[in-house]
Amino acid sequence: MNHINKIEHIGIAVKDIDQANTVYEKLLGVPPYKQEVVESESVITSFFKIGNNKIELLASTKDDGPIGKFIAKKGEGIHHIAFDVDDIEKEMDRLDKEGFQLINKAPKRGADNKLVAFVHPKDTNSVLIELCQEAPL
User: Fold this and answer.
1) Where in this chain does the record put each VOC domain (predicted)?
2) Which residue in 38, 79, 82, 117 is a FRET match for 123, CA 20 to 30 A apart?
């Protein structure tokens, strides 16, 4: 049984979502298929799909939000890699038992109709890892 199915998306932190949408639309040759605000994370997201791959652009709606803090510290760029899982709670439990520090104690609702949880980058060679499971309707 696979624990992680595939890369679900790559998240890129940007200062200006409209400017970044223009850049990535030109780069990828397709417009974003979805844009939404995730109030709990103080972020606005845009999703692009190229074949089976997705790119998520994230812009902070508040300077002190997670993406605002990330950009202030590191600048724009790759923020996280998200992996698709079948059962996010089982995967969180497995990773906890393997010694990984989970940022979330329980999955929460994220963008693009997903349940999400994060693994602390201190345990993954400085890469923030997001686990994603399609949320039940």
Assistant:
1) 6-134
2) 38
